Amino acid sequence: MLEDLTAIHVLAAYLRGCVDRLRREQTGALSLEWVAVIIAALAIVTAVVAIIRSKATAGANKISIP
Q1: Residue 28 DSSP label
Q2: Less packed terminus of the chain by CB within 10 Å, N or C?
Q3: Residue 14 to residues 9, 41, 58: CA-CA distances in angstroms?
Q4: What pTM value is reported for the model?
Q5: Taking the mean position of all CA atoms in its chain, how far away is CA 51?
């Protein structure tokens, strides 16, 4: 599980850098960089949900009902 989260931490750090840079350079218009940041954030959320779902499914499959 830790190796799954390493990639997410790297992407989150990259997004923080992008958002900080965009905040300094606000021009009032939606730029392609903002679209890229939003897509990357959605990818991170999707990855987290997939990891949690797979771990929950694996845990549920270990439960045996007599």
Answers
A1: S
A2: C
A3: 9, 10, 30
A4: 0.55
A5: 11
